Each structure stands twice: as structure tokens, then as C-alpha cells.
TrEMBL record:
GO terms for biological process: L-glutamate catabolic process. InterPro entries: Aminoacid_DH-like_N_sf (IPR046346), Glu/Leu/Phe/Val/Trp_DH (IPR006095), Glu/Leu/Phe/Val/Trp_DH_C (IPR006096), Glu/Leu/Phe/Val/Trp_DH_dimer (IPR006097), Glu/Leu/Phe/Val_DH_AS (IPR033524), Glu_DH (IPR014362), NAD(P)-bd_dom_sf (IPR036291), NAD_bind_Glu_DH (IPR033922). The record marks 155 as: Important for catalysis. One of its GO terms (molecular function) is nucleotide binding. The keyword Nucleotide-binding applies. This is Glutamate dehydrogenase. Keywords: NAD, Nucleotide-binding, Oxidoreductase.
Length: 430
């Protein structure tokens, strides 16, 4: 059995962790959050770091490091994705777990927050190797995940297939009578393996909905508006798909391999077909020209959708941004320094914990269906998702107007106040 290390510290350091803590501090100061509750929310509950060996296709054994950080479970089981990327480390997992706590609280879900992943570059491994890595990671986590304890889901470079491997491995460790009742140990599964209709598009659809609700408030017609998207994976593609369907035009895209642009428009569906035949990359797409990555955020557009990694919009490139709206599909794409610049310029930001919350809401629907032995149709899932997204958006937008604060601070306040209420009502910290 691989050794699990458990710590309870959350040191402040530059990067995503520093950003999420500063966002939290800002909101907590405004509402004068109860000091004891603040202490609890500042630290993560549990942190698991696992090292595990996996045999590669060439017969050699490689050692991998995986992480799962459980930030808070005052509102329900820990919930959040697993990321496979070279930048995954303990601080990234802590930051992303904290954002999950605020996100699930804001969305009114019966969940806490967690996040994790494996530090690796998945492009370097075969599908067989990725399957063995995922299965060994699942064994290493053991009963530290579970359908009523901590429920992983897809994130960067993980997908329904990854979730199916986790499900299968987790179930194989359970006695026969418990196997079929544990389907909800992960969400974002393939439909045939207990997944839900609509979870594939839930995050991107939610991103689109928040843009639509914002445009309604501002009396802006999305038809003919230009948008740019960083990241053309699950979130970026689906957000672009729904924006294009609404009549907006995608004029630039950036992925891990480079950036392309075309002021006349880039067809979302044609680009998707191209990436499928091009190892997932947008590079070389004939109906667009390539641009320097450093120019990407400064391109002319109305709406900018960062849907890749954290800390992409920084003090360095924020000044160049021409969009009047940033819709954060990614977690933590805008650092605190950049946000100050953007807000001064009058650029509005739909914050990640609201903008991309469609994903975890879709996961909640999958979890409920598994628990209750139900199967919902796509239109039912999408209608329920839209209702929940509208409720969250309206609360954030109204709070932001009433208190004369930006939407991120408003979203944090709503999320933290729900947690504060839970702790106070439980009588722990009157
Ligand atoms: N999948 C989900 O349901 C949810 C994802 N998110 C967040 O959305 C973001 C994207 O996640 P997914 O779409 O699921 O991942 P994905 O793995 O499907 O796609 C990631 C995309 O980002 C691109 N990318 C990676 N590194 C990049 C870089 N340095 N510069 C530009 N592009 C880069 C990749 O080439 C790919 O196109 C992440 O921040 C994730 O945490 C948030 C909520 C839910
Ligand atoms: O679907 C989920 O449970 C979580 C998705 C996720 O990782 C996120 O919202 O950042």
C-alpha cells in the first residue's frame, strides 16, 4: 500500500494559491467573517500525496506523483476534478480545491471542495499507459475517495474514459453487493458506464449562459459579437459552440500548441473536426493565420473566454486586452494584479466560480441519477442546468450592484456566507 501523507497547512506562495487566498481575504474582510470560521476556511482539511509505480509499454517502471486535496466538507462530500498536467503540484491542488469549495457553495449544491491530479505530460504516454497510471492512482487513493466522501470528475487532460477507469478500479476493490451502488464515486463518466446526458457540454453551456445572462442585463445583442477562446478542449469548444449558435463569431483561438486568428471568423465545428484529425491541436488550420501567443489576449474582440489554465491573464498582458467582457471558463485564469488593471479599465469579469460552475452542477445531476437509479433525458438536464445557472447569476449580479462591488467579490461573499451560516447553525461557532 502506498503511503499517504496528510498535512494541514496552506502556506502562502506566489501563483494560484496566492490568488485564491487574496480573493478569499478580500471578501472575508468586507463581510467581517467570524474569525474562527475564517481560520477553518483558510486551511485544507486533508492532503494526500501518493507516489506509485507503473510499468510502461517498454517494460520499464516509472514512478508517478498524484495529489488529492480536500479543502472543506461543511456542506457535503468533497467534490472536484482530477487534472493530468506537468504543472500539477500540492499548491495547485490546494488552490483548485479551495475554488471548488466556493463554487459548490455558490451554486447551492450539497458539496464541499476538492481537487487533484497527477504531475505528468499525457502526450508522452500511450492510452494503455494512461489507463495503468489511472488505475494505480485510484488504488493509491484507496478509500480516501468514495461516493459519499470525495467524488472526482474530469478536468484538464482527463475525460469520460479516465473516469470509467477510476470507476472500474474503485469498484473492483469493493465486495460484490456494494459494486453497483458505488457508481457515483466519480462523475463525468461515459453514458454507457453510468454517466449523464449533458455532462459533456455542461461547463461550456454554463459559460455561454452566464455570457447570455450578462448580455441581457447590459442590453447587448450577442449576434455578430466577436469572441476569442483560450483552450479548445472540453470547456473552450462547448462554450464556442453555443456562442456561435447564438450568432457570435469566433475570431481567434489559442491552445497548448499556439494561436490562430481570422477576423472574418473561424468555424467552431470545422475547427473541431480539424483538431480531431490533428492530435487535438489547432495548429496548421488552413482557414486562419497563426499569431504569436504573446499577441493573443490583445486581439480585437468583444468577449474573451479563457478556458485553459490558471494565471494566463496577468499584469503583463491585461493592459492590452480589448474585450469588454472576460468570461472565465478556466479556474483562476486572471491573477489578482491583472484584475485590478481590468476593473480600472471598465472590463467586466464573470468569475470562474460562477462562470464554469455548470460542470459541477452537471456532475451533481449525474450523482443524483446514480444514487436514485434514475436516467434523465438531455433536455431535462439542460433545463435544470439553465435554471440553476440563472439563479446563481442573478444572485451574483444583484449582489454586485447592491454592494457596488465586482462580480468576483460578490460571488465569494455569497459562497462564504453560506458556509458561515452552516457553521453557525451547527452551533460550533456561535
Ligand atoms: N472539464 C470541466 O468540466 C471543467 C473544467 N474547468 C476548467 O476549464 C479549464 C479547461 O478544462 P478542460 O476544457 O476540461 O480541459 P481540456 O484538457 O479538455 O482542454 C484544455 C485546453 O487548453 C489548452 N491548453 C493547455 N495548456 C495551454 C496553454 N499553456 N495555453 C493555451 N492553451 C492551453 C489545451 O491545448 C486544450 O485545448 C481548466 O482550467 C479547468 O479547470 C472548470 C470547470 C469544469
Ligand atoms: O464536475 C465536477 O465535479 C468538478 C469539475 C471541476 O473540476 C471544476 O468545476 O473545476
Amino acid at each position: 500500500m502506498t503511503t499517504l501523507t496528510k498535512t494541514q497547512r496552506t502556506p502562502r506562495k506566489q501563483g494560484m494559491l496566492d490568488n485564491v487566498m487574496r480573493q478569499f481575504d478580500h471578501a472575508a474582510d468586507i463581510i467581517q467573517l467570524n474569525g474562527n470560521i475564517r481560520k477553518i476556511l483558510e486551511v485544507t482539511n486533508n492532503e494526500f500525496v501518493v507516489h506509485f509505480p507503473v510499468r510502461m509499454d517498454n517494460g520499464e517502471v516509472e514512478i508517478f506523483t498524484g495529489y488529492r486535496v480536500q479543502h472543506n466538507n461543511a456542506l457535503g462530500p468533497y467534490k472536484g476534478g482530477l487534472r493530468y498536467h506537468p504543472t500539477v503540484d500540492i499548491d495547485a491542488a490546494r488552490a483548485l480545491a479551495m475554488w471548488m469549495t466556493w463554487k459548490t457553495s455558490l451554486a447551492g449544491l450539497p458539496y464541499g471542495g476538492a481537487k487533484g491530479g497527477i504531475q505528468l505530460d499525457p502526450t508522452k504516454y500511450s492510452q494503455e499507459e494512461l489507463q495503468r497510471i489511472t488505475r494505480r492512482f485510484t488504488y493509491a487513493l484507496g478509500d480516501n475517495i468514495g461516493p459519499e466522501l470525495d467524488i472526482p470528475a474530469p478536468d484538464v487532460n482527463t475525460n469520460p474514459q479516465t473516469m470509467a477507469w477510476i470507476l472500474d478500479t474503485y469498484m473492483s476493490t469493493k465486495p460484490p453487493a456494494e459494486r453497483s451502488t458505488n457508481m457515483h464515486v466519480v462523475t463525468g463518466k461515459p453514458i454507457g458506464a453510468g454517466g449523464s446526458e449533458g455532462r459533456d457540454r455542461a461547463t461550456g453551456y454554463g459559460v455561454f449562459l452566464t455570457i447570455k445572462f450578462w448580455a441581457e442585463q447590459k442590453k447587448i445583442d450577442l449576434r455578430d459579437k466577436k469572441f476569442i477562446v483560450q483552450g479548445f478542449g472540453n470547456v473552450g469548444y462547448w462554450a464556442a459552440h453555443f456562442l456561435e449558435k447564438e450568432g457570435a463569431t469566433m475570431t481567434a483561438v489559442q491552445d497548448a500548441y499556439g494561436s490562430i486568428a481570422n477576423d472574418e471568423g473561424i468555424s467552431v465545428e470545422k475547427l473541431l473536426e480539424y483538431t480531431k484529425a490533428n492530435k487535438g491541436s489547432i495548429q496548421g488550420y488552413a482557414s486562419a493565420y497563426s499569431v504569436e501567443n504573446s499577441e493573443f489576449f490583445g486581439l480585437d474582440c468583444d468577449i474573451c473566454v479563457p478556458a485553459a489554465l490558471g494565471n494566463q491573464i496577468t499584469g503583463k498582458n491585461a493592459k492590452k486586452i480589448k474585450a469588454y467582457l472576460i468570461a472565465e471558463g478556466a479556474n483562476g485564469p486572471t491573477d489578482v494584479g491583472a484584475e485590478t488593471i481590468l476593473l480600472k479599465k471598465g472590463i467586466e469579469i464573470i468569475p470562474d466560480i460562477l462562470c464554469n460552475s455548470g460542470g459541477v452542477i452537471g456532475s451533481y445531476f449525474e450523482w443524483l441519477q446514480n444514487k436514485n437509479g434514475e436516467i434523465w433525458q438531455l433536455d431535462e438536464v439542460m433545463a435544470k442546468l439553465e435554471k440553476k445557472m440563472r439563479e446563481s447569476f442573478t444572485r451574483v449580479f444583484e449582489t454586485s450592484k447592491e454592494r457596488n462591488i465586482d462580480m468576483r467579490t460578490a460571488a465569494f461573499i455569497i459562497a462564504i456566507e453560506r458556509l458561515e451560516e452552516a457553521y453557525v447553525q451547527r452551533g460550533i461557532f456561535p
